[in-house]
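Sequence in, structure out.
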Amino acid sequence: MTITVADPRGMARTGAFVPVAAIPMDARVEALRFLAAYAYSPAGTDPVSRRSRRLCAAIKAADPEVLAGGARTIAALVRERADFAAHLDPDAVLVPVPSSVPRPTAETDVSVDIARALARCGIGAGVRAVLARGMPVRKSATAPVGARPSVGMHFASFRIVATPLESAVTAFVLVDDVVSRGRTLLAAACRLRERFPRTPIVAVALMRTLGYVTDLPGLTAPCLGDIHWRHGDAVRRP
C-alpha cells in the first residue's frame, strides 16, 4: 500500500505507507488533550465562514497581528476559565510542530511564531524547538482525502533535535496553527512520548477545522477536546 507525499521541491512522489504498528506501543499517546481558540469552516457559505477562511489564511501566512491577537485570546481564556488554566502548566515547555517539509532552521515555521506570541502573553516557561522533520510529508490541506499522510507517516517523519533534561521539564505543550483531524499533533505527541515517557503532553492550536459545519455562529469558539485513536487513525473530539 502506498501514499503520495511531497518532496522538498514541492513535487509529488510516492512513499511507502507507514502503518500505525510502526509506532512503538510504549510511545503511543492514547488521547491527546488540545485547546483551540477559533473555528474554521472550509465549506461554509455564510459571512462568518468566509471570514474564518480569511483568518485561517492570515494565520498560515504568519500575519504578526493575527498571531498576536490569537495568543492574547488564549491567554485571556486561561485567565478567565479554570478548565483552560488547568490545561496549561505554567512551567511547560512550548514545542512548535514543524511544517510538512524539512527546513534548515525552524525559524520560518508559523508554529514558532505562534509559540513565541504565546510566551510573550505569559503562557508556558519558554519555547524550545524539540521536534523537526527528518523527511517531507504531503500537506494535508492540499492533498486528496485518500492521499493525506497517516499518523504513522507523520511519526516516521518527525525526529528529536533538542533534548531538554527531562527532570527539568514539567510538561510539553505542542503548538500548531490549525488542527483538523489531529494526525499531525497525535504523531508529534507520540514522538515526544517515545523520548520523554514520563512528561505530560498537551496541545494548543489557534484554530480548529469544522469540516461539516456550513454556518458558523462565530469565529471565536473556545474549545477543549481530545485527539484519540479509532481503527488505527486519529479522531478529534469535538
